[in-house]
Amino acid sequence: MKKITIAFIVVVLAIGAYFFFTFDSEKPDLTVNQNPPTDGTGVPVGGDQGQTPVNKALTVIGKSVGGRDIVAYHFGEGSEELLFIGGIHGGYEWNTALVAGELMKYLKANPSVVPANLKVTVIPVLNPDGLYKAVGTSTPNFSQADVSSSEDVVVAGRFNGNNIDLNRNFDCDWQANGKWQNKIVSGGTGAFSEPESLAIKNYVEAGKPVAVVTWYSAAGGVFASSCHNGVSTETNKLTELFSKASGYPAYQDFDFYEITGDMVNWFARENIPAISVLLTNHTDIEWTKNKAGFEALLNYYAK
């Protein structure tokens, strides 16, 4: 009887060991994503469910209200950073995400254009939840055909998952109720109350880029930034350079209607030179103009 009992125990232990090592070996490796999704430029990105692959060419700077990655892509390895941002108004200004995507494709195909002293960082979609509402993806890997035909859906894509206008959520003249054209929109419960605006705040404060360019639509112009501290000499230079190269007219400020909690003006408050580039309409990418403006800034900051 003892022999049978011992044999039974041995068999049970053997079976247990087999299943332990089999299941353990089948556990996914969470440190490296062997086949990560891409954004259409060949650069891996986190998926819509918040997957974050390991890749030195990008930084996940935060997550949206809906848990989607906010991704910064890096080109070049210099110590001075030029930062370009698209998609703060998500699906309503979807063409700003596409022009940022064009810049990424260009830099991937032409890495040598980035001077040795510079690093170019592109955040193509600062409001991934808003973009997802209108085009069904949170990356710039889409075309105009993917954009919803419903005007209401596209307008809803301007706002984040909390129905906040992110460009009214920064700490320059912040107000709970902001304006958008003739409408009242929510600026959040306080400056930087939203994870998307807090993510860019933390990223900019940690890295202190030498200059920032943010795309919006649609007015067709290059706008300087300030927050009751005047337009800085460097911001004036950026405005002049980008305007002259691109052909967009230059403006000292955006005065079509009152703006509170504006991101680019908050950059100015932090003494970071920054300009807003407004595409002419809500559909065209105007890559030729923006490529010329981008190259003018590269030449200016090259050492």
Structure, explained:
This protein has 303 residues and is an alpha/beta fold. The protein has a single domain, classed as Zn peptidases (Aminopeptidase, 3-Layer(aba) Sandwich). Helix content is 34%, strand content 17%. It contains eight helices and ten strands. The strands form two sheets. The protein has an eight-stranded mixed sheet, sandwiched between helices. A two-stranded antiparallel sheet has the order 5-6. Strand 1 (58-63) and strand 2 form a beta hairpin. Helix 6 (233-246) packs across helix 8. The longest helix is centred in the N-terminal third of the chain and has 24 residues, at 2-25. Residues 8-13 and 15-54 have low confidence and may be disordered.
Topology:
Layout: H1 2-25, E1 58-63, E2 69-75, E3 80-85, H2 94-109, E4 118-123, H3 128-135, H4 151-156, E5 177-180, E6 183-186, H5 195-207, E7 211-217, E8 221-224, H6 233-246, E9 250-251, H7 263-269, E10 274-279, H8 287-301
Parallel strand pairs: 3-4, 3-7, 7-10, 8-9
Antiparallel strand pairs: 1-2, 2-4, 5-6, 8-10
Helix pairs in contact: 6-8
Largest sheet strand order: 1-2-4-3-7-10-8-9
Unreliable residue runs: 8-13, 15-54
Number of β-strand runs: 10
Helix content: 25-40%
CATH topology: Aminopeptidase
